[in-house]
Amino acid sequence: MGEVRALAERLQAPMIPADATSVADLETVFTESTQALGGKIDFVLHSIGMSPNVRKKRTYDDLDYDLLSKTLDISAVSFHKMLQVAKKQDAIAEGGSIVALTYVASQRTFFGYNDMADAKSLLESIARSFGYIYGREKGVRINTISQSPTLTTAGSGIKGMDHLMDFADKMSPLGNATADDCADYCVTLFSDLTRKVTMQNLFHDGGFSSMGMSLRAMNQYSKSFEEFKDESGKIVYG
Ligand SMILES: NC(=O)c1ccc[n+]([C@@H]2O[C@H](COP(=O)([O-])OP(=O)(O)OC[C@H]3O[C@@H](n4cnc5c(N)ncnc54)[C@H](O)[C@@H]3O)[C@@H](O)[C@H]2O)c1
């Protein structure tokens, strides 16, 4: 809680701790939030992800299924729980906006992303399924933002994160989106200027998801094939 507490103090914002897998905790979050804000909530960000399988270094072909349930519960089902609690309490204002953060590994395979890929697929699906109901009944929109790899606690748990970030950066015409860029994009989705955007998975990745191969990535890759001479003068390939 250290950093979050410091931020809350700086912003003079109340902090309400909750385990996102606990419906009771989420009920408290929404009740206390509407009390603290003096009315309904305009926007919510779900920024939660964790895989105990990744933490325990279990590979995707050797998953522990109890841990897989925890990954899915923490990283995806918590989003459904949050939405369901909010809707039952009618805690979100008409036209409100809800965003969850996701990653492109939900749709395409990335080495080392492990069971988080399955969690992100489920998360994006929940955004669509709940987005239909919440939009139809309460005018509340739900979207996911698919962010570039970013060096954070969750990010650094991914195998070869620094190389993945470098690869993504070289592949993206605009380069990787930073955490601050991500915050800016969230703000646009919370604003009234995007009031007709819902049930979307929106890529915020400098163009990465539409690329096949870039010149910068190709140049880097080609370097590994450069020929050089070993100590005996024999030509070898790197
Ligand atoms: N870092 C990246 O490269 C990257 C890329 C795309 C998407 N994302 C997503 O962004 C979101 C935020 O991750 P991050 O990169 O800031 O890492 P992070 O580790 O800093 O954030 C994850 C957060 O989840 C919280 N959390 C874990 N279990 C919880 C639980 N049971 N109840 C409540 N909170 C819980 C942690 O306290 C932490 O604040 C995640 O959904 C992540 O998958 C990250």
TrEMBL record:
EC number of this enzyme: 1.3.1.9
Protein name per its UniProtKB record: enoyl-[acyl-carrier-protein] reductase (NADH)
UniProt keyword Lipid biosynthesis, yes or no: yes
Gene Ontology MF terms: enoyl-[acyl-carrier-protein] reductase (NADH) activity
One biological process term in Gene Ontology: fatty acid biosynthetic process
Keywords: Fatty acid biosynthesis, Fatty acid metabolism, Lipid biosynthesis, Lipid metabolism, Oxidoreductase
Gene3D superfamilies: NAD(P)-binding Rossmann-like Domain
Similarity-based family: Belongs to the short-chain dehydrogenases/reductases (SDR) family. FabI subfamily.
Organism this protein belongs to: Tannerella sp. oral taxon BU063 isolate Cell 6/7/9
Top-level enzyme category: oxidoreductase
